[in-house]
């Protein structure tokens, strides 16, 4: 009898396994594909490795001239970049496995299905063997949504896109969200003629409308074509050598035996409360499978909340200060409400906006490039922050902490930022609030 069986070895699953084992729980982790889940194997990490290669090539291919650096006839060896990406992923997977084993986690590389309740717990079956546990943690993640488009079987998802070893001459991207924009940027830098088709009237989903518009204009100058309000009906009509479909993700809830123990679902996801508990005592869920915030960093925190509550340490999950990032060049990041979303919720909000050029470090490292820092306030309280300009992915967590602690303007003013850093833009914006 195990104290805990975890189904799914993505960010939520492997993080929870390590925490649980170190907390004294006898833990078994099932993963049918690769440790690290979508994020490490076919999402966050491999895409960032390739995007960094693309950024270096952009500097070599004329982008360095404005900094006094020139290169002659640079070549983007895309196959070599892919090999490096695979090496990065492999080393990280090995590191996770070593860490879990050192914590005492048992790892089973099998497809697991919940078979039902047993005395004092639950039964899980895998490869013909039954396992029992007092607690279950469901971390089966998510999968790409494939819309009913004619010829969809010929298109790529993010998985196949990241496995390409050659750069297509033309690439159609169906979906102008985070994944679509990152892949559009990558292959535009690598030499593809890229067209992005987005059904909405703006790119970047719920990101601030002004910032998403600025990002679109930057990529249009780079040669990416955007088709907004575009409902794609036939992949063949796009006329591209390769097509990436990235219109969203959905929780993986079928085929894992939820019905055998009566775990409730809603809108295709496992329902969880603030303690990450499902409607069945002893069964928890974390990560994309609950459909609340399909981000790896959210999954990590949800895993912590679930394990803490299993160990008797009361902990709750809060979703109000979770940042999102688009790793384009330049980067975009956002957290909390936009002025538009605040109005829709009946919140009286105001904005503080400053160009990123108010930061000396930004000016020193981003010659001729613009950017924007936008803060959204409800009275004296920060309820949202949105930025365009690298490296805002490394800055947004400061604002996450500010919002989580519900700090007022006068408190925020007392934060000391190192100089010179791009993060000082926050300090500037606060004193303009």
Structure in words:
The protein is α/β, with parallel strands linked by helices. It has 14 helices and 20 strands. Strands 1, 2, 3, 4, 5, 6 and 15 form a 7-stranded mixed sheet that branches. A 5-stranded antiparallel sheet has the order 16-17-20-19-18, with helices on both faces. A 4-stranded parallel sheet has the order 10-9-8-11, with helices on one face. Helix 3 packs antiparallel against helix 4. The N and C termini lie far apart (58 Å). 46% of the residues are buried. The model has no long low-confidence stretch (mean pLDDT 96).
How do you describe this structure in short?
This protein is an alpha/beta fold. It has 14 helices and 20 strands. The protein is globular, with a radius of gyration of 23 Å.
Features:
433 residues, 5-stranded antiparallel sheet, 22% strand, alpha/beta, globular
Mean pLDDT: 96
Counted beta strands: 20
Rg calculated over all Cα atoms: 23 Å
Strand portion: 15-25%
Structural class based on helices, strands and sheet pairing: alpha/beta
Give the helix level as a range of percent: 25-40%
Distance between the termini: 58 Å
What's the layout of helices and strands?
Elements: E1 2-7, H1 11-22, E2 27-30, H2 37-42, H3 44-63, H4 78-103, E3 106-108, E4 113-118, E5 121-126, E6 129-138, E7 142-144, H5 158-163, E8 170-174, H6 178-190, E9 193-197, H7 209-221, E10 225-227, E11 242-245, E12 249-251, H8 258-261, E13 265-266, E14 269-270, E15 283-285, H9 296-310, E16 324-326, E17 332-336, H10 339-344, E18 350-355, H11 360-365, E19 372-378, E20 381-388, H12 396-404, H13 409-413, H14 424-431
Parallel strand pairs: 1-2, 1-6, 2-3, 6-15, 8-9, 8-11, 9-10
Antiparallel strand pairs: 4-5, 5-6, 7-12, 13-14, 16-17, 17-20, 18-19, 19-20
């Amino acid at each position: 009898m195990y104290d805990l069986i975890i189904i799914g070895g993505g960010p939520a699953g492997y993080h929870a396994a390590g925490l649980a084992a170190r907390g004294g729980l006898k833990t078994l982790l099932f993963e049918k594909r690769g440790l690290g889940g979508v994020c490490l194997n076919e999402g966050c990490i491999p895409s960032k490795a390739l995007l960094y290669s693309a950024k270096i090539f952009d500097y070599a291919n004329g982008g360095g001239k404005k900094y006094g650096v020139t290169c002659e006839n640079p070549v983007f060896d895309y196959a070599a970049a892919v090999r490096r990406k695979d090496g990065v992923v492999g080393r990280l997977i090995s590191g996770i496995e070593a860490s879990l084993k050192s914590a005492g986690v048992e790892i089973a590389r099998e497809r697991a299905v919940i078979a039902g309740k047993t005395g004092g717990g639950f039964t899980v079956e895998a490869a013909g063997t039954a396992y029992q546990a007092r607690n279950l943690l469901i971390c089966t993640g998510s999968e790409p949504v494939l819309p009913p488009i004619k010829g969809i079987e010929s298109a790529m998802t993010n998985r196949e896109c990241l496995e390409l070893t050659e750069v297509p001459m033309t690439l159609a991207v169906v979906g102008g969200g985070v994944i679509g924009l990152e892949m559009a940027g990558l292959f535009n830098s690598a030499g593809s003629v890229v067209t992005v088709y987005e059904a909405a009237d703006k790119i970047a989903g719920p990101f601030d409308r002004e910032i998403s518009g600025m990002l679109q204009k930057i990529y249009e100058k780079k040669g990416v074509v955007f088709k907004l309000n575009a409902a794609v009906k036939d992949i063949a009509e796009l006329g591209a050598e390769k097509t990436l479909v990235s219109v969203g993700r959905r929780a993986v809830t079928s085929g894992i035996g939820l019905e055998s123990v009566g775990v409730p679902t809603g809108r295709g996801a496992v329902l969880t409360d603030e303690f990450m508990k499902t409607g069945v005592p002893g069964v928890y869920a974390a990560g994309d499978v609950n459909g609340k915030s399909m981000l790896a960093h959210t999954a990590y925190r949800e895993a912590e909340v679930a394990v803490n509550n299993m160990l008797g340490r009361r902990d709750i999950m809060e979703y109000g200060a979770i940042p999102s990032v688009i790793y384009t060049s330049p980067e975009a990041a956002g957290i909390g409400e936009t002025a538009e979303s605040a109005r829709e919720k009946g919140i009286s909000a105001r904005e503080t906006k400053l160009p990123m050029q108010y930061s000396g470090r930004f000016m020193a490292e981003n010659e001729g490039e613009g950017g924007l820092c936008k803060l959204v306030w409800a009275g004296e309280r920060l309820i949202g922050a949105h930025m365009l300009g690298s490296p805002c992915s490394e800055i947004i967590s400061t604002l996450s902490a500010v919002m989580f602690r519900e700090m007022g303007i006068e408190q925020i003013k007392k934060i000391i930022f190192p100089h010179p850093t791009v993060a000082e833009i926050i300090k500037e914006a606060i004193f303009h609030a």
